[in-house]
Amino acid sequence: MRADSIRYHFASDNTAAICPEAWAALEEANTKYAPAYGEDEWTAEVCWRIRKIFEVDCDVYFVFTGTAANALGLAQLCQPFHGVICHERAHIQTDEGGAAEFYTRGARLFLTNTTDGKIDLGQAEKLIAQQVELHGHMMRAISIAQATELGTVYTPDEV
User: What contacts 24+ positions apart, CB below 8 Å, involve 12-17?
Assistant: First the structure.
């Protein structure tokens, strides 16, 4: 294949090759024996670093895909009677095959319109204000992506 015919695809975080530094670290780790299931020195080290960066004592769970991260993260926040606000072109709505609804055991995605890949804040406020607490879904989370599916970014004030 000629170099000028190589195409780069940005459809997913798992379509590109691994960075050379990460590959070298994996090769070095592969020369030793270590306990399995997260009991190894590398897992302990990265968990410690994450706790230090975020200045909180927390559990850390590693997943292999963005879909798993999104769905399992929402599953920690939501019960079946909760709602998640996102826009109509949001990744969790269009590209994750119902994973959020499955892992939350039925939490529903409530959609706002979008023209620029961002949530319509006015519509989000209406969804929050109109919720019926006894018999309807209660809004529990808002899902945003930075950058959005359309390549736009939220400003700090929008977040």
Answer: 12/66, 13/65, 13/66, 14/65
Q: 84 pairs with which residues across the strands?
A: 109, 141
pLDDT in tens, 85-96: 999 999 999 989
Extended strands (E) in 33-157? 82-87, 108-112, 138-142
Residue 140, both tokens: 């529990």
Same domain for 77 and 131, yes or no, is: yes
Distance between CA 67 and CA 100 in Å, rounded? 8
- Same structural domain, 50 and 99: no
In 15-130, where do the E strands start and end? 82-87, 108-112
Q: 3-state DSSP call for residue 112?
A: strand
Which structural domain range is residue 50 located in? 9-62
pLDDT tens digits, residue range 132-148? 767 788 889 999 888 88
